[in-house]
Design goal:
Elements lengths: L3 E2 L4 E3 L20 H10 L5 H4 L7 H16 L1 E3 L5 E10 L2 E13 L8 E2 L6 H14 L1 E2 L3 E5 L5 H6 L8 E5 L2 E8 L2 H11 L4 E5 L1 H16 L3 H4 L1 E8 L6 E3 L2 E4 L7 H7 L4 E7 L4 H11 L5 E5 L5 E7 L15 H4 L2 H13 L4 H5 L4 E4 L2 H9 L7 E5 L4 H10 L9 E3 L9 E2 H4 L1
Parallel strand pairs: 6-11, 8-12
Antiparallel strand pairs: 1-5, 2-3, 4-5, 4-10, 5-12, 7-21, 8-11, 9-10, 13-20, 14-18, 14-19, 15-17, 16-17, 16-19
Helix pairs in contact: 3-4, 4-7
């Protein structure tokens, strides 16, 4: 079962630390060099100075530790009581407004496959090594993992609703409205802990960050600090929350020698029904087209940049995973559109191996449907095929997690991302 606990969070000491909208940052792995520079200019207290420190080689981790120590000294406050931090994100997606509700806590760290915390995507060694060096230097959990649990009756919200009080942080940042509350009431905390008993926790975003916390725990246990390191910081949201939104991530294929789109599509005629349609006028029309195509089963669309049409592939009713050479995959993966695309089109059709896919050798990912459409319309671009996708349903993500399998990279995009800077958890201060 998932074991959670409250903690004495380090938070920005508002308003003396500055405007919270100038202090938060997106997750480190979606911030490019220009974005980092812009965030850094907003405030000397912006957390990007810590999560993406400047410097050459390993010296940047020492710089990050000094930046974090400076934040603790001049801009952060540590709550006197162990607390849960209830977090609401109000945002607009595909023309609708949502509010996603969840809370930040500590969770007992267990390796994937050895406890209730389950992944759905593969991780790479490079990002984990980078985050571990920074975590080690700072002696803290700086960034949030995004996890999900099932609570159809929304009992956790009922447990904390009377204890929210005034927000401890409120800001408009990165296109969303963020509101953070602190709940220290022992009865409310115990009730939320009871909701998590017997539940699995599914990682929505932050697989690398979670595995890094597990690695840091092992290091600290070897150093005799086991109890301090058993728990790591996480944001948890309800699988049954109406504000839980998943958006698609489209694929752009480039620099593949001898790529034959028409031949690949023809070779898959026994697996997919294919129909042609004009390139949609806008992102809304694209979403409607893909949603209709995928209403009865897996579907995706392929377009050659500069062409005026796309090919819509829908899985045939008589599809047999064994005959398609997919019988060795867990059943939870055999009919996922993103898996079918990667296995049958990208790997077998275009010759982009799993290793090349993992290394992003011939693939770029577009979260913006409008940007992917613009690329598909352009006749002279660095791209050979644009792959338009539907979002992966949350129920399919859960089924994959429960099966012990993982999906290809960028199979899900839980929108919006959780910013860094809402809370920090200092293991050094705990000791």
């Amino acid at each position: 079962m998932a074991t959670i606990r409250p903690f004495r969070g380090l938070r920005y000491d508002l308003p003396s630390a500055g405007d919270p909208a100038e202090l938060l940052a997106p997750p480190y792995d979606v911030v490019d060099e220009a974005g980092r520079a812009a965030l850094a200019q907003r405030s000397a207290n912006n957390c990007v100075h810590v999560i993406l420190p400047e410097g050459d080689g390993d010296e940047k981790y020492g710089r990050g530790a000094r930046e974090f120590a400076g934040l603790v000294e001049r801009a952060l406050t540590r709550d006197a009581e162990p607390s849960l931090y209830v977090y609401h994100q109000r945002f607009t997606a595909e023309g609708r407004e949502y509010t996603r509700k969840g809370f930040i806590c500590l969770i007992e760290l267990t390796s994937f496959g050895a406890g209730p915390v389950l992944p759905h995507e593969r991780t790479l060694s490079g990002p984990k090594e980078d985050r571990l060096k920074l975590m080690r230097a700072c002696g803290a959990h700086l960034e949030l993992v995004f996890g999900m649990f099932s609570d159809p009756e929304r009992r956790w919200e009922q447990a904390v609703s009377a204890q929210l009080g005034a927000p401890v942080l409120e800001a408009r940042f990165d296109g969303s409205h963020h509101t953070l509350y602190r709940v220290a009431d022992a009865a409310a905390v115990a009730a939320v802990q009871g909701v998590l008993e017997g539940r699995s926790v599914y990682i929505a975003d932050g697989h690398h960050r979670y595995e890094t916390m597990c690695s840091y725990r092992q290091e600290l246990e070897r150093a005799g600090h086991g109890d301090d390191a058993r728990f790591g910081m996480i944001y948890l949201s309800n699988l049954d929350d109406p504000g839980l939104v998943v958006l698609p991530t489209h694929r752009v294929i480039h620099d593949v020698q001898g790529l034959d789109l028409a031949g690949t599509i023809a070779s898959l005629d026994h697996i997919f029904a294919v129909r042609r349609a004009p390139i949609p006028a806008d992102a809304a029309a694209l979403r409607a087209l893909l949603k209709q195509a995928g209403a009865a089963g897996p579907a995706f669309a392929l377009a050659r940049p500069g062409a005026d049409e796309l090919a819509i592939l829908t899985l045939r009713d008589d599809f047999d995973p064994d005959q398609a050479g997919l019988g060795g995959l867990p059943p939870a993966l055999q009919r996922l559109d993103v898996v079918l695309l990667h296995e049958l089109v990208l790997d077998r059709g275009f010759g982009i191996t799993r290793e090349a896919q993992a290394a992003k050798t011939n693939i770029r990912y577009y979260k913006s449907s409008a940007a992917a459409l613009e690329l598909a319309r352009a006749p002279d671009v660095d791209a050979q095929v644009v792959c338009f996708m539907n979002a992966t349903p949350v129920a399919d993500v859960v089924a994959v997690c429960d099966s012990g399998a993982v999906m290809p990279q960028k199979s899900t995009f839980f929108y919006p991302k959780i910013p860094t800077g809402l809370t920090f958890h200092s293991l050094d201060l705990e000791r």
